[in-house]
Amino acid sequence: MIFKNTSILFGAALTALVLVSSCEDNKKKEEQMRIETERVERESAEKARMEMEAEEARLKEEARANSIAGQAMKNEDLTTLVSALQSADLAAMLSEPGEYTVFAPSNQAFEKLTQKQRDELMKPENKQMLTDVLTYHVVKGAITSDKFAEAIKGAKGSYKFETVKGDELIASMSGDQFVIKDATGKKAQVILGNVEASNGRIYIIDTVLMFKK
């Protein structure tokens, strides 16, 4: 009888031990599965973040390449302007997101200036003067040719608008071409207009515009 009871107790203990062991194994497996799931989720999230950052960087670089400054750098007729923008630390402004309209003097436009004028503008000590001249060619907002023509027509053929410099320019039409007059009365003709950029519009002109000092 004692032996039978002992056997029963032993069997029960063994069964309990097996159950406990099985529960512990299940808990270990569940913990391992949880850890593995979290690892996969972390890796997926990290991969998604890296892909998103890479796409954002690609789009940003694409926008920069197609920006006003980027377009100017690709145009062989604007190399003097690009050098001037870099000297005045304005290339970055015209590379970043925003909306600008730039009246971009061609290389030939700069050549109309005397050598002395060009040399003076490019001197390091005259950086502010160069900045003033260049920002006199920049307007806030992207002005398409249609809007430009409408504004001129609405102003009875003589449309005044303010530049980033703070001084005004006057736009008019000569036939189907835009003409820009500066504060000194000098006129520049748009030789290539409405060039689209990621941050605005470019109008290439044949004369460097000057404000009154």
TrEMBL record:
Disordered: annotated segments: 28-47
Gene Ontology CC: one annotated term: extracellular matrix
Every FAS1 domain range: 65-209
GO biological process, one term: cell adhesion
InterPro entries linked to this entry: Adhesion/Biosynth-related, FAS1_dom_sf, FAS1_domain
One Pfam family this sequence matches: Fasciclin
Gene Ontology molecular function: cell adhesion molecule binding
Record protein name field: Putative surface protein with fasciclin (FAS1) repeats
